[in-house]
Write a structure and sequence with these properties.
InterPro entries: Histidine_kinase_KdpD (IPR052023), P-loop_NTPase (IPR027417), Rossmann-like_a/b/a_fold (IPR014729), Sig_transdc_His_kinase_KdpD_N (IPR003852), UspA (IPR006016). 41% of the residues lie in helices and 20% in strands. It has a seven-stranded mixed sheet, with helices on both faces. Strands 12-11-10-13-14 form a five-stranded parallel sheet, with helices on both faces. A two-stranded antiparallel sheet has the order 5-6.
Length: 368
């Protein structure tokens, strides 16, 4: 399945910046790298100048065979904590200036001290130079899906990419297999070493996990196609009213979870994301609290939202004023448990919002 954001023109049309094709799958082993190499070999046969910028075969013989005959840019050796590590050599790729470069594992985090923190930032830098890129990533690495994937699989994914990369890509190719076939590949030793098979089948590669991840991958690209169709037809939904989602965050460490939940809602509704922090003018934030808010702000920006910080002695009134000013249609807020006796003396923020909002939907997200 391919979701194309530039259907009206050939993928490799001449332009100032390079084109980006992302191969995405539900889990390791579905064949993203294999498919990328297959497509690259076909293009090389047609006369295109193709090189490998970074390839991770994970000792899979079939994948390594697909790379035969393709030029590989030498990796850059980096010394870190008395260890010699290898990273993609971006400057060497730019100097070589191929028509197309293949770059595996888009969500990879570079060695500390590198010019850019993440590999996807290297990819954006290469695209800006006019070089086309094929890259690979798994669905669980999308930032807005982080909490959902952790809930499904019990695994917290540390390396993540902003959702906007899929939106900005010129093509998104879903490499799809059934959970049964993927488990067979795992049992045959085609994904991990033999000593990892049983552990993988009992954890991440459980059938129910793979089924849920596959659904996420297919739905993500389906949403991409639907959005593209709306752009081409000029219709933005049935009533033309864009949803505006406001996520209210606090100094609670769980606030990033609310931001991701709001981002998913925005993606489903094709709306706009706003993240709000109402600070008390009479209260100073501790160092940790300040870091939590900065983290939410960075996350909001990565997810394509607008971060708002207002000063108000009454958090509920602050939220309502911002909601009115920005024509908010839905609000996402966290709910923390409080002793019942407090309810008799002082209404909670959620209770006050329910009683004050007019025509605005309220999503109350329970604490973890």
């Amino acid at each position: 399945m391919i979701a194309q954001n530039q259907l009206a023109q050939p993928f490799f049309s001449a332009s100032h910046s390079g084109k980006h094709r992302i191969y995405i799958g539900m889990a390791p082993g579905v064949g993203k790298t294999y498919r990328m190499l297959q497509d690259a070999q076909a293009l090389k046969e047609e006369g295109m100048d193709v090189v490998i910028g970074l390839l991770e075969t994970h000792n899979r013989e079939e994948t390594a065979e697909q790379a035969e005959g393709l030029e590989q840019i030498p990796l850059l050796e980096v010394n870190y904590q008395n260890k010699s590590l290898k990273e993609m050599n971006v400057e060497e790729i730019l100097a070589r200036s191929p028509q197309l470069v293949l770059i595996d594992e888009l969500a990879h985090t570079n060695v500390p001290g590198s010019l850019r923190e993440k590999r996807y930032q290297d990819v954006e830098y290469i695209l800006e130079s006019g070089i086309n890129v094929f890259s690979t990533v798994n669905i669980q690495h999308l930032e807005s899906l982080n909490d959902l994937v952790a809930k499904i699989t019990g695994v917290v994914v540390r390396e993540r990419i902003p959702d906007r990369l899929l939106d900005e890509a010129d093509e998104v190719v879903v490499v799809d297999v059934t959970p049964e076939i993927l488990q067979e590949r795992l049992e045959d030793g085609k994904i991990y070493d033999v000593h990892k098979i049983e552990q993988s089948l009992s954890n991440f590669f459980q059938y129910r996990n793979l089924t849920a991840l596959r659904e996420l991958a297919l739905r993500e690209v389906a949403d991409n196609l639907e959005e593209l169709a709306e752009e081409q037809s000029g219709h933005k939904g049935s009533n033309g009213v864009q949803e505006r989602i406001l996520v209210s965050v606090s100094t609670n460490p769980q606030s990033s979870r609310l931001v991701r939940r709001g981002a998913r809602l925005v993606s489903q509704l094709k709306g706009r994301l706003y993240v709000l922090f109402v600070c008390d003018p009479d209260r100073f934030l501790s160092k940790d609290e300040g870091l939590y808010i900065e983290m939410c702000e960075r996350l909001c920006q990565e997810l394509g939202g607008e971060f708002l910080r207002v000063s108000h002695p009454d958090i509920v009134k602050g939220i309502i004023e911002v909601a009115q000013q920005y024509h908010i249609t839905q609000i996402v807020i966290g709910h923390t448990r409080q002793p019942r006796w407090k309810w008799f003396f002082k209404r909670t923020i959620v209770q006050r919002l329910i009683g004050s909002l007019n025509g605005i939907d309220l999503h109350i997200i329970a604490g973890s």
